[in-house]
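For reproducibility, we list the full input for the zinc ion complex.
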Amino acid sequence: MAKTRPSKSDLDSYIIKGTNNIVRAGDCVLMRAPETDKPPYVARAEKIEADNRSNLKVRVRWYYRPEESHGGRRQFHGAKELFLSDHFDVQSADTIEGKCVVHTFKNYTKLENVKPEDYYCRFEYKAATGAFVPDRVAVYCKCEMPYNPDELMVQCDGCKDWFHPACVGMGIEQAKQLDLYLCSDCASIDEKKPEIKLTESPVMNGKLEPKMATKRQKK
Ligand SMILES: [Zn+2]
Ligand SMILES: [Zn+2]
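The corresponding predicted structure, in tokenized form, follows.
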């Protein structure tokens, strides 16, 4: 008797157990880690399918946290940073705990408040080699580090570079209150500029007239 291959059927969506949250292909999900002390794994659901015994399976593409990468977590990695890996898996849909949102880096930096389910991704990660795509990223400040969105930076109004307050000898509170900032390089250029002050005529705005009038009244 010929064996028939177990038939699988693709599903449009999956409702997370005990919730009203619907997961569809393309959504990002949090999946229970086997170790209870670990934060949930983050993945992108690529496909949801039921096997011939009606077990719901989800084909996922894993996001790696910086600490799970070969190089480990580095100073410029944000708390909500994830790398989209080339590591695919099939998991039981039961392990899905909830949904999350993995933003582009640009969109993440524009969020007014970051909710627990908000993450961002600016690198793809090759799990086998530990390589990142892109392999280069813009650096800022005197310390020449990529931007960590968790850290406050101030922008120089001269060169438009960004600086960590601590790297330029400034306190966080002081940095928050700045209206305008010039880095030391730009400030020294500014000093060397010849000063050409276009002084306003003293009679402008009619300010001089009342002053003179009061003087006249005094004596
Ligand atoms: Zn710095
Ligand atoms: Zn500057």
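The two ends are 124 Å apart (CA to CA). DSSP finds four helices and twelve strands in the chain. Both points were considered when choosing residues for closer inspection.
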